[in-house]
């Protein structure tokens, strides 16, 4: 993240607000979908699989009167391996520098033990930071009685200062949420250029797009066992971008699933990723994908570092 020492555009209106909002929640509650909606374009990958987000990702919202840095955190859950521990530590670290904490819950389901763990984590780490309790997926709750009962259950469970019920997918009440968040930000300068929506470079974006397409096209066990590394990214001309990426899996059987019969699965993954990257870049994309086995990489800190997962003790 920007160290926030650099200030962009001194010619700002009086009372300009800026700050950091940590977006936290359990896996698959819609954090990335909400941030993409708030920013106004896609900066985080989205899939129906839990644990899609693995690292903190920064989404930058800028208007004439405010700039908010949204930190999209990995879902808080009980870790099963080193990667899970890494994800939880990243999520908890987001609380420390936040000017507000946005706790996202799934209103289409009743709160359970996982939601209790999230609420306890918020209470433990929030300090004096204001908490926005945001209940997502109102479009999936058909009965008014269920809606009322679940809102009350989440309100009772989670300490909060403000409450919103929204649909990140459809945009219901998202503008009202944004206005309330801006009002809570302290007065401050602009830390990123007005046209910048994320801090990540295109190599990272390309790897995430490929990982998203693998997740959307493979069976249940595969998404959590994959990592993607872009080993070559070259802008060969104004009209062509060359990208070479390696998809890592943990077992030989998973490699076969990702490749598919006669290579049909990897071709589909490549086609979908190439189309989306071409739309993002405004060029034709040549995408070369390879699948390799890195046994048990999610439990191997050295392999995780090689794949770009940095631990707090790393310099």
Keywords:
315 residues; alpha/beta; six-stranded mixed beta sheet; three-stranded mixed beta sheet; 9 strands; 34% helix; globular
Topology summary:
Elements: E1 17-25, H1 31-39, E2 57-62, E3 66-72, H2 82-93, E4 100-106, H3 113-125, E5 131-136, H4 144-157, E6 162-165, H5 174-184, H6 202-217, E7 227-235, E8 240-249, H7 252-259, H8 264-281, E9 284-293, H9 301-306
Parallel strand pairs: 1-3, 1-4, 4-5, 5-6, 8-9
Antiparallel strand pairs: 2-3, 7-8
Helix pairs in contact: 6-8
Describe this entry's structure for a reader.
By secondary structure, the chain is α/β, with parallel strands linked by helices. It contains 9 helices and 9 strands. It has a 6-stranded mixed β-sheet with strand order 2-3-1-4-5-6, sandwiched between helices. Helix 3 links the parallel strand 4 and strand 5. The radius of gyration is 20 Å and the shape is globular. The two termini are 14 Å apart. The relative contact order is 0.14.
Brief account:
With 315 residues, the chain is an alpha/beta fold.
Q: What share of residues are in beta strands? A: 15-25%
Quaternary structure state of the chains depicted = single chain
Number of strands: 9
Q: Based on CA inertia axes, which overall geometry fits?
A: globular
Biggest sheet record: 6 strands, mixed
SS field, number of helical segments: 9
User: What share of residues is helical?
Assistant: 25-40%
Compute the CA-based radius of gyration.
20 Å
């Amino acid at each position: 993240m920007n160290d926030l020492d650099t200030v962009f555009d001194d010619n700002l209106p009086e009372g300009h607000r800026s700050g950091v909002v940590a977006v936290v929640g359990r896996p698959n509650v819609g954090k990335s979908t909400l941030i993409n909606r708030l920013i106004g374009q896609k900066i985080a990958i989205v899939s129906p699989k839990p644990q899609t987000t693995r690292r903190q990702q920064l989404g930058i919202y800028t208007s004439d009167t405010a700039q908010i840095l949204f930190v999209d955190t990995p879902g808080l859950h009980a870790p099963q391996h080193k990667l899970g521990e890494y994800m939880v530590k990243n999520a908890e670290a987001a609380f420390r520098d936040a000017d507000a904490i946005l706790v996202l819950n799934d209103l289409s389901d009743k709160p359970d033990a996982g939601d209790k763990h999230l609420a306890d984590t918020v209470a433990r780490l929030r300090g004096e930071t204001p908490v926005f309790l945001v209940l997502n997926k109102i479009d999936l709750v058909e009965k008014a009685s269920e809606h009322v009962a679940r809102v009350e259950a989440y309100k009772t469970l989670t300490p909060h200062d403000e409450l919103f019920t929204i649909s990140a997918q459809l945009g219901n009440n998202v503008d009202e949420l944004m206005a309330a968040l801006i009002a809570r930000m302290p007065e401050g300068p602009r830390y990123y250029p007005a046209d910048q929506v994320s801090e990540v470079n295109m190599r990272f974006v390309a790897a995430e797009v490929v990982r998203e397409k693998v997740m959307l096209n493979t069976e249940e066990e595969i998404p959590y066992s994959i990592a993607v590394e872009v080993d070559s990214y070259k802008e060969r001309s104004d009209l062509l971008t060359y990208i070479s990426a390696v998809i890592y899996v943990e077992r030989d059987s998973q490699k076969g699933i990702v490749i598919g019969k006669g290579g049909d699965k990897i071709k589909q993954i490549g086609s979908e990723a190439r189309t989306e990257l071409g739309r993002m870049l405004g060029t034709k994309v040549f995408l070369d994908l390879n699948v390799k086995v890195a046994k048990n990489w999610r439990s191997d800190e050295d392999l995780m570092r090689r794949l770009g997962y940095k631990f707090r003790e790393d310099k």
